[in-house]
Predict the structure.
Amino acid sequence: MTIVDRIAKALGYAPMQGRDQLLNKLTKAMTYYIGVDSPVWREDNPEKYVEDGYARNIDVYSIVSYIAKKGSKVDIQLCRSLPNGEEETIESHPVLDLLYSPNPEQGKMAFMEQALGFYALSGNSYTYLLAPDAGVNKGRPLEIYQLPSPWVEVIGGDYRTPVRGYQIYTYGNSQQVQFTLDEIIHTKAAQYLWGEGQEKYGMSPMRAAWYSVQTSNSGYTANKKGLDNMGLLVFCLIKARARMRCLKHIGHPISSA
């Protein structure tokens, strides 16, 4: 018991609860059924948001692309707070270098567009920090990448560490890659569906719009089938008219039946 707790108890107040006890009340019940070091299952299917939403529906593609492209053009500034309350803009810093040149395959705009796009589609963005395990740069990120958020799973922990890490399956779910907490920056949207680990993921905006997207896709599919069938109908009408002309030319009686 700390000196503060002793003074509080002497004054008639209950001792202040420690952080572990507070976390116990908040997370123990929710982590009980998940299991330690087990992947947390998602109720929705964010893969469909990409495959049947962004890659198939022109409305979803246009909205997500607009948000991601606009956001990727925003300049990133690094500022230092001064004792007088003002802010000083830092023009040169390794953090800025990393954000504007995140990895050999992407520049700042491409990286940010992908991060914002994944966030808009799945409600989650996972930034992988590639850092050496040893040497003078140990633990210092030299490159950063965006993991494909729809295929990333959170690995649950206990009530003290609710999240132990992250994992992703590649090459048709044949290869598993795991990441530690220090390797990932998980940015997630607010989640309002709690229980069974769902609170460990951000809620995707696509979840609320999914029925509308499916209805839209069904409409596009029906319209396409209609146009395809219309082409066949036109072909049959042309053939029928040609047959009628031929029969009329040779003097064959044409039945109206």
Remarks:
- The first strand starts at residue 78 and ends at 81.
